[in-house]
Design a protein that fits this description.
By secondary structure, the protein is mainly alpha-helical. The protein has helices at residues 2-12, 16-27, 30-48, 55-87, 90-101, 103-123, 128-140. The chain has one domain (14-140).
Length: 146
């Protein structure tokens, strides 16, 4: 039984090439493109929430935020790389890396943060749960806000 578990665990591990390709995709993917925007926004919100800090402390808080972000980003990129390696075959991963390295892929990556920002502005405030409850209320008369 132990042998079966060891073999199953080994089979579940992605191949080194798949992991390497997954990493390259993750490093240049959508998540990697939007994380700096999130970090900047949340850091500035955090700084603004503490007006009691002087300029030097605000700079130090920003530095701490950057260090924490870098550690978290690495964890996210590594997790995404492993997920790509588990869910895609090496041939497809190679094709994605080739696209990401192409001129069109580079332009795509450069556009992603702006596209996401524009999309968010166009959508406005999104409240999926609230929208579901409103629709459910209209359909059934139940779960209506009072």
């Amino acid at each position: 039984m132990v042998t079966i578990l060891v073999v199953a665990a080994a089979a579940a591990q992605p191949a080194p090439e798949a992991l390497q390709l997954g990493r390259r995709i993750a490093e240049t993917g959508t998540l990697a493109a939007i994380l700096p925007m999130i970090q900047q926004k949340e850091t500035e919100e955090l700084v603004a929430a503490h007006p009691e800090l002087d300029a030097a402390d605000k700079a130090r808080l920003r530095g701490t935020a950057k260090r924490v972000f870098d550690v978290g980003r690495e964890r996210l990129i590594q997790a995404e790389a492993q997920a790509y390696a588990r869910h895609m075959n090496v041939r497809d991963l190679r094709a994605l890396v080739a696209f990401q390295s192409s001129p069109a892929g580079k332009r795509y990556r450069a556009a992603v943060p702006r596209v996401i920002a524009d999309t968010a502005k166009l959508i406005g405030k999104a409240d999926f749960k609230g929208d579901v409850l409103v629709a459910y209320c209209k359909e059934t008369g139940k779960l209506c806000s009072k």
